[in-house]
Structures are given as C-alpha cells and as structure tokens.
Amino acid sequence: MNRSCAIVLSALILGIAGHAPDTAAQESGGGDPLSSTPVKQDRSYELDYEGSFQPEQGTVRMAVSIRQPRDLVRQVRLRFDPSRYRDFEGDGEVAVEGNEMTWRPRVTGGTLRFSVGLDHQRKQGGFDSMLGNDWAVFRGDDLLPPVTVTALKGAHSEARLRMTGPDGWSFISAYPRAEDDSDWFVVEWADRKFDRPVGWMAGGRLGVRWSKISERSVAVAGPMGQGVRHLDLLAFMRWNLPELVKVFPEFPHRLLVVSAGDPMWRGGLSGPNSLYIHADRPLISGNGTSTLLHELVHVAQGYRAAQDEDWIVEGIAEYYTLELMQRSGTISAARHERGFDKLDQWAAGTDGLAGSNSTGPRTARGVVVMRALDAELRSRSKGRYSLDDVARQLAEDGRPVTIQRMRDVAEHLAGGPLDSISPERLESG
User: Fold this and answer.
1) CATH classification of 207-283 is 3.30.1330.20, yes or no?
2) Domain assignments of the chain as residue spans, ordered by start
3) Rounded distance between C-alpha atoms, residue 288 and residue 290, angstroms
4) Quick one: which of 138, 187, 205, 275 is 20 to 30 A from 29 by CA?
5) What is the largest CA-CA distance in the chain?
6) CA separation for the pair 45, 157 (Å, rounded)
7) What sign does the CA torsion over 149, 152, 155, 160 have?
8) For the residues 56-75, what does the mean pLDDT come to?
9) pLDDT confidence of residue 42
10) Which CATH number does the domain 3-20+43-194 belong to among 3.10.450, 3.40.50, 2.60.40, 1.10.8?
11) How far is CA 242 from CA 112, 213, 214, 238, 324, in A?
12) Ordered strands of the 100-104 beta sheet
C-alpha cells in the first residue's frame, strides 16, 4: 500500500453492523474451575483473518487463526460451495465431507487454511463478486461462508482482518482500522461471539472519497478507470441521507459505498453498513425512483423478510425512494406523484404478493399497499402517526418481518384494524 492510500484509508473510520448472523452452539462450562473469574479476561480469544489476493491465479488464499488461552473454541463447522472453496487444511483436525468442513483446533488454537475462487456470476448476468487483474469487488461473506461454532459458554472473539495483494494494491472495508496497526481492520459484532467479516469491500488500485453527512462517516470507493462518480454519489447522499436518518435514526454511523463498471452486475445490492452500485446506474431512474436510495433504505432497515413476505421489505424500500426525494426537494411534488402513478400501473401486472423474491410488479404493488397504509394511518391518528413509525419500529425490534408483525405494529398505532392491510384487501389486490 502506498503512503497516500494509507493516509486516505486510515482517515476513513468506518464500522459495520449485522447481516445473516452465524450460529454458535455454546457449551455450559459446568464444573469449570475458572468459572468465577471475569468473563472478559478468561473467555476471550484472538481471531485473525488474513486474505492473500492472487489475481494471476484467480484466487484468494485465506488463513483463519485462533489464539486462545485454553480450550474455548472446540469446533468450527461450515457448509461451502465446492466450486468456490477448496484445499482445506489446518492445525488440529480438519475433516471435509461433501460440502461440509469441520475444524477442531488445538487446545491453544491454530490456523485453518483454504482457497477461495472469488468470481461469482448472478443468474441474471453480471458478477456480484470478482477478482480481476487490477481490482477486486466482493463481500466479506465471500471470504468465509457462515459458520456454526461450538465453544465454551461466554467465550467471545477479538477479531481482525488483513488483506494483501500485488504491489500497488490497497483495500477498504466498512470496518475501522486498528489504531496500533492500520494494515488490520477491527471486526466486531456486538451480538456475536465468533465475529465474521461481512459487508461490501474492495481492493486493488482504488479511488476513495469520503465525507461527513448527518453525523455519519460516508465513503465512496471503486477501482480506478471504472467510471465511478464519487462526487455525484456523495452529493446525492448529502441531499437525501438527512431525510433517511429522520425515519431511521439508528442508521449506521459509518457507511461504505462500493462502485464498479462492467462486468459487475448492473444494479445495486446492500450489505451491513455498506452497499454496491454499478458505476453506470443512474442516480434517479426514468420513473423517478432511485437504486442508490433503495439500497440505502435496506442498509437502514437492517431487517429481512420472513419466507414469502419479501414484498414488505422491498415495498417499503421502494416507497421511500420517492417519498424521501420529495421531502428533500430532490424531485418536485408533481414528479413524486407521477412516480407513484407509474408504480400503480405496474402493480396491475401482478397476481399476488407472496414470494421469496419480490421484484417488478410485486414490489410495485407493495408500494401501493405502503402508500395506502401511510394515508390511512395519518387519517386515523389525525396526523400523529405515519408509515415512518411502522418502518422505524420494524427496524428497531430486529425480528424477521411478516405481514402479521407489520399489522400488529400499525394497528397498535391506529388503535384498531386497518382496511389498507386487511387480509381481504391484500388477497383481493
């Protein structure tokens, strides 16, 4: 990493929040002679992730190291895609059977090593993870699949991540850099015992711009020569992020936006405290909505849909792309109304709301439902409550979103049943 990049990246103090948490099967620790000692001193272990990016081979060589004072972590188990993850080996016992790997480290820890094929192409075309000759765009999730950990009750990691590559490469993630060694990112989850790196990241010959918006540290990063519009993206967020934070005050205090051109996927994708958007994607689409703002709402939501109810999460996100831009003055009231009219017309093409992935007409119909719910809530509460309050409460409780959960929250605010989200109305369309 050259000195100028190090200065820019060190100045970027970014953090990350949760997404798809790993599970931890914790043992009780009964009869442990040290159980009365302070948990932080006795039951913390060091967890290092090191990724060596090798563009000429198209792989990342990963090393996951555990250093522990005693037998705290007993087993790490993961399922993996054999076409992407291979060559598992390590200290202690490593067993691979089909698409499952089990690692039992030594009492004092050890290192698990494996190779990752970073390239991953979506069914619709375009890559959502790629390692090229001069750059890489990926998610931390790609470096290590979700794991199940068996550990002593109360054991928790102090984790960090370091990535290296060819001369001239630098790396960025939404994690803060360690104060004592800026080559390392500090990986920390308040609700996890085994901290795993997640969220969007980039490496290579990068351009990075950052700014302070609504008391949040925001960075835009992307490979050089890929047409990334750093300042346009920052300006758009400067207009609209303040309005988004009013709806979701728990919006992360640090945000990383990663952008790149072809052959990356020509859309947007969110992650914990981070998002990806294709460099050619317009800030505002022809129908008045915004892919960038849609993904920012997903970052703010921090929740996922229960099975077959993705239309709720997507409908809320798309609704706010129009609503927030009108509140911020980015679009006029007339364009705001035309945008909803177009979505209303598009919604006529769907035959139902249920489905694991909500796109196109189904999401448009979700927007129609959300707008009707907002209007009814405002009317029933004499302007005291709106969809803002429903979306905020769903984000705060962190549970998977269901129509019943949304109905409970909204009807509690309204003081009774609401026609806009009644079973009869949703079934009839």
Assistant:
1) no
2) 3-20+43-194, 207-283, 310-428
3) 7
4) 187
5) 71
6) 5
7) negative
8) 96
9) 73
10) 2.60.40
11) 43, 7, 6, 7, 9
12) 23-27, 147-152, 73-79, 100-104, 93-97
Contact 216, 199 (CB under 8 A): no
pLDDT in tens, 358-371: 678 889 999 999 99
Token code pair at residue 127: 């890559």
- CA-nearest of 303, 279, 302 to 291 is 279
Output DSSP code: residue 420: G
* Better-predicted residue by pLDDT, 95 or 34: 95
Angle at 297 between CA 303 and CA 19, to 5 degrees: 35
Place of tokens 């909803």: 340
Q: Quote the CA–CA distance of 138 and 276 in Å, as a whole number.
A: 9
- pTM, full prediction: 0.88
DSSP state of 419: G
The answer, yes or no, to whether residue 15 has pLDDT greater than 50, is: no
* The pair of three-digit structure tokens given for residue 223, joined into one six-digit string: 């490979």
Beta strands in 206-273 (DSSP E): 206-213, 216-223, 254-260, 268-271
User: Residue 387: helix, strand or coil by DSSP?
Assistant: helix
Other C-beta atoms lying within 10 Å of the C-beta of residue 276: 27
Distance of CA 226 to the CA centre of its chain: 23
